[in-house]
Write a structure and sequence with these properties.
Blueprint lengths: L3 E9 L2 E10 L4 H15 L3 E12 L1 H16 L3 E5 L3 H9 L7 E2 L4
Helix pairs in contact: 1-2
């Protein structure tokens, strides 16, 4: 699957979940950052969850996009957490030390 798609869910007024499907890499990183830039001022969530269950590729550019999203969320007082990373993505996040940065809502 080429590209990246995102589905938004708002299970309660303070939480927005972005369910990602596809490849989070150099070609798609800007899509994610732009989506988060749109979600934060529109929904004003207390928690933004990025569900990685459908992410088949996560490269260094994708990890950089996750960090950018975390910074954007922090700037608005929103907590950003990741959920459901696949085993390889989980290992990459652990290797980079980012498991300590992101609240992880599920394991892969």
């Amino acid at each position: 699957m080429d590209g990246l798609s995102a589905r938004l869910e708002a299970p309660d007024p303070g939480t927005v979940i972005v369910r990602l499907d596809g490849e989070l890499d150099l070609a798609t990183r800007d899509q994610l950052v732009l989506a988060v830039r749109a979600v934060l001022p529109t929904f004003h969530p207390q928690t933004l969850e990025l569900d990685l269950a459908g992410v088949s590729v996560l490269d260094s550019a994708g990890i950089g996009a996750l960090v950018s999203c975390w910074k954007l969320a922090q700037d608005t007082g929103c907590a950003l957490r990741l959920s459901n990373p696949r085993p390889l993505a989980y290992a990459q996040l652990r290797l980079t030390g980012l498991l300590d940065v992101f609240a992880l809502a599920g394991t892969g």
